[in-house]
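[scheduler] slot 2 assigned
[scheduler] job type: sequence-to-structure, two independent chains
[scheduler] chain ordering preserved from manifest
[runner] begin chain α
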Amino acid sequence: MDTRGERVMQDNELDRETDPSAPVWAAFGDLMSGLVGAFVLLLMGVMAVQLDLAGNLQAEIAKRQAAERQQQTLAQVLAVPLSSGRITLQDGRIGISGRLLFDLNSDRLQPEGRVLLQSLVQPLRAYLSQRNEWLMVSGFTDDRAMRSNNRQFEDNWALSAQRALTVTRALIEAGMPSHLIFAAAFGQEQPLVPNTSEHNRSQNRRVELAPVPRAGPPAPTQPAPVFSALR
């Protein structure tokens, strides 16, 4: 009996030692745990990307809506000069043809251009007073180099800069507060159309007025300066 019992015990111990089910199920459990963990991490990553995309989409929608509101408001306050065809309005930029303001390769403001700028001051000033924005006056030229006999300007950068300054000063003289306006020069960069013909070049010789956001807190309200008679 003892011998037979010892054999049974030895056989049971041998079965337990050779039973593959215990380590297999343990390895399978570890594998499943790893897969679940990886799936959770992947799911969290996908959700984070989706939330980021949704946030970017909402920001872009808000930006476009603000641009549309700006366009509509500017179209309303500038209805009279827009209806006359003397200015254009596209994407919040007020375009004025260079030939209305200046002779070719000149920065001297023509009388018709001065009158036009004077008509823009009141509506633009009213627009800017309600917003944390200021007015950027940008000068642009065509791609032709300065003529050798024109020694006043070194290049198109200088010409576009001086024209922008001339328009800026004219607007200030007409009543635009100086703290609400600044000048910028772009030379022949950023043409509206390719410089492939004289007609196209005439379109690229222009000055643009564009309300742009101010960095920092709103500018303090200041009384309008009193100017003497325009020159």
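[runner] end chain α
[runner] begin chain β
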Amino acid sequence: MAHDDGAHARSLSRALAAPVRRAVNRMRNVGQAEAAPNGGPAGSAVIDCGLYVDGVRQPGNWSYAEALVAARQAGNGFVWLGLKEPDAAELADIADTFDLHELAVEDAVKSNQRPKVERYGEMTFVSLRTARYVEHAELTENSEVVESGDVMMFIGPHFIISVRHGDAARLGPVRTDLESKHELLARGPWAVAYAVYDMVVDTLIEVASAIEEDIADVEDSVFARQSSGRIQRIYQLKRELMEFKRAVLPLQRPLATVTGGQLVEVPKEIRKYFRDVNDHLTRTVEQVIYFDDLLNSILSARLAQVSVDQNNDMRKIAAWAAIAAVWTAFAGIEGMNFKYMPERDWTYGYPVILAVMIIISLALYRAFRRSGWL
């Protein structure tokens, strides 16, 4: 009963909380959309373009070409250009302006890239997989649990270009929060890269916590007194967990590259921040591996339950078949047309035969009940 009550309470809580979370997300999205004062023209992939000098955003609306020139003249300045799902033509013009490598540009146009860090001369290309938990009142075999996306970054001495695919991770709040930390922002483009990494990993932690609740619900349904755990739900959750693993596990190597000092252009002070992000990621990786093992155990337990239920059904069928065989045997014998069958001429032959069949059947029924077959 404790399992049933816990699962019911969690389902009710999830059902009540889902509309509230969706409303909050909508309000956040609206706020984030309004927080892009320097977006490009209508139809452009440019979300925002900011010029930062000594950690302070410079006023005015800047085109990325003008901002890059001003950043180089300022010395301690850089451009943060934010893009969302740019097409090849628009990104090609940006690549000419910032002298980006063609292979990195080709990767940035396409989504579903594997997390990586690659150097092209003075420019570093970074790719991250993002994930967001999709709210649902109840997990079904068709529920979408994890929505994934991509964030790529081109990082140079005086610029950082962030390219976002999908809505799994929005960078508007990152920019707003970072602009209030002038000392951190003054350390250059890699401070922005750290903030993006930190936001992505924090979101992964939130997704892991939400998936843990789904796994607990599935576990309760499987081990409840009246088990109703459908195998399809377990497979669906495992499939969504695999999607989540694609964002979490491959991110370890790129972060290790940054924290391990293999990129000399990363300031030592910023490298300390990256190590903190790496610690958070390590804990999330351990959670994901644990979730995978736990789901495998739950699936094995459910399959064992199904096998036991099938065996129980077969035993019941066999028991009833044995009882029916008694009646079939007597009916077969009495149905023979032999000339000499003395019980046919006996006045009490029929009721006696009927009573014998009932007594044998009741005896078999009682025996099967005692052995647990019925």
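[runner] end chain β
[qc] chain β: The two ends are 25 Å apart (CA to CA).
[scheduler] slot 2 released
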